[in-house]
Amino acid sequence: MPKIESVDHLTEYRRQVRAQRDPQQLQVLVCGGPGCLPLGSEGVAAAFQEEMQAKGIEGKVILKTTGCHGLCSHGVRVLLRPEEITYQKVTPTDVPEIVETTLMGGGLVDRLLYHDPVHDVKCAHKSDIPFYQGQNPLVLRKLDIIDPEDLDDYLAVGGYRTLRKILFQMTPEQVLEAVESSGLRGRGGGGFLTGRKWRLCRDIANEVKYIICNGDEGDPGAFMDRAVMEGDPHAVIEGMIIGAYAIGVRRGYIYVRHEYPLAVKRLAKAIEQAREFGFLGSRILRSKFSFDLKISQGAGAFVCGEETALIASIEGEIGEPNPRPPYPVQKGLFGRPTVINNVETWANVPEIINMGPEWFAAMGTENSKGTKVFSLVGAVNNTGLVEVPMGATLRQIIYDLGGGITGGREFKAVQTGGPSGGCIPKQFLDMSVDYDSLQQVGSIMGSGGMIVMDSSNCMVDVARYFISFLFEESCGKCTPCREGLKQMLQILTDITSGRGEPGQIVLMEELCATMASASLCGLGQSSANPILSTLKYFRDEYEAHILNKKCPALVCRPLLKYSINPQDCTSCLACVRECPVGAISGPKKEPQVIDQDICIKCGLCRDACQFDAVIAE
Q: What is the distance between the alpha carbons of residues 612 and 617, in angstroms, rounded to a whole number?
């Protein structure tokens, strides 16, 4: 691996890398993202290696394990270039047929193609799949085509060209002005203008400053940052180098949770490669600018996603938030001015500088520029990662890209912004997804988690789940958050257990107001959102639980009553055999009866009945 000594050297080396690559050469790109790895993508890649060796085509076909291909619900995914043929749900046993039929024969393996249920057609090419249509990948554009552990791959698609541009064609002030003009807002949740944050830190007179990449993604169902760190680590590094140049920083940290070992591994390798090439370290590309990076691992505490708690963790202290002001840009890591942005924010920076701030600002809405990556999960047919322009509607994301609701059920709500976000009901399906619009309906953008819920979800139970998560993750430092979450969880548990009382709704609203105004950090201040949004849009469900002791969605077990319809019962005794407590009995060849005093409401009898004779109400 050569050390790049100058701009001319970098230009020549990139030319050599590209000259060695034939764009028409067959490539097999196996998804190694968060969704496909657990499904056996490593085994699929190994099977391709073995089969191509056996067929004698190993040197004619390039095999790579890439980052996330986006469509996680259909993994393991394999992309064949240059024709952009895509196969889904591939297993090692499918590989010989793919090699024989497609790589060697030029045909298609029909059963592995994506089936579009809306138009009842099969899609052979990536561009034909509705999930990818309507997306505008900027941060995700390279994840399915490069090997994240091969720096040459990153250079071949234009990597580190922006670094060359800023060091020798732009002043730090010009870089800062470009980021400001782009309108880029922090993608980690707060939505603060990135350029303004950078300038605040730059304008403070201090010789030592720091920048930090917040990779402590802790929201349930969120894996956007993980996918970028694992699939395109050099984009994050290049963005941080550019930011350091603009702000006047010589040292940076990437904070990654310990539960992301592959991200840690690939980031560490990318940092080492960048040092060896001369993109990190002293006098980068023989310029006057020096900068280096270090990885700091967190222990998985959700609260460490908050800036001051993250800083305390890096310093070796307990990961607890501290009062603000002073803000990190004034007094942050080791008491020095510090800029913290999340993974997606840093990954946007190289293209903003390369393509120009006007190009970025042309996407999105007036106050929310560019694109946003979302992890689309829950009761939706196409789960995975999507990247759309700011201002796309919920309907476009959930139905056009997500393929609609699983099982043909009715859409009920979508939770955005993680556990501290709000639940948005169906009347807002055509709402623009941007920072301001989400706030207006009682939710937040957060880091980009999007959990879709259908008619089978109980919104009271959903609120209880998120409050339970926040209660477990609260650091306990401040009384409003510590005690408020405890009391709210107890009230929600009472309501879902049949012990709810009418006055508890008003009590929760008072607790929410107190926590929002008195909690120390954003976790406590925003933790009321799940309750306030579900109370606002689904108050009837709370009232049904409290006043009627009924769960309309048939989710809360203590409120359910199982009975057997004698007209539908065939006396097959399947329910009798499944009941763990012997609550079902009756004469042979006659309808059975459930003893309500014995029944534990487990629902096994209903699952066992093939004639829909067991009724839950």
A: 13
More confident position, 257 or 117: 257
Provide the β-strand partners of residue 253.
212, 294
Residue 265 burial (10 A CB sphere; 0-12, 13-18, 19+): middle
Above 80 in pLDDT, residue 459?
yes
Please name the helix (run of DSSP H) or strand (run of DSSP E) that holds residue 196, with its range, or none.
helix 194-202
Quick: pLDDT tens for 414-424.
999 988 899 99
| Residues facing 151 on adjacent strands | none
Alpha helices in 25-84 (DSSP H): 41-55
- 3-class DSSP assignment, residue 552: coil
- For residue 318, CA distances in Å to 302, 345, 350, 387 come to 13, 26, 34, 35
Q: Mean pLDDT of all residues in the chain?
A: 94
155 CB contacts (<8 Å, ≥6 apart)? 13, 14, 17
What span, in angstroms and rounded, lies between the C-alpha atoms of 341 and 609? 53
CA distance 346 to 271: 15
Give the C-alpha separation, 267 to 269, whole Å: 5
- 334-370 per-residue burial string, b: 16 or more CB within 10 A, e: under 16: eebbbbbbbbbbbbbbbbbbbeebeebbebbbeebbb
- Neighbouring C-alpha atoms within 13 Å toward the C-beta of 180: 13
**Which tokens is 316 given?**
């070796």
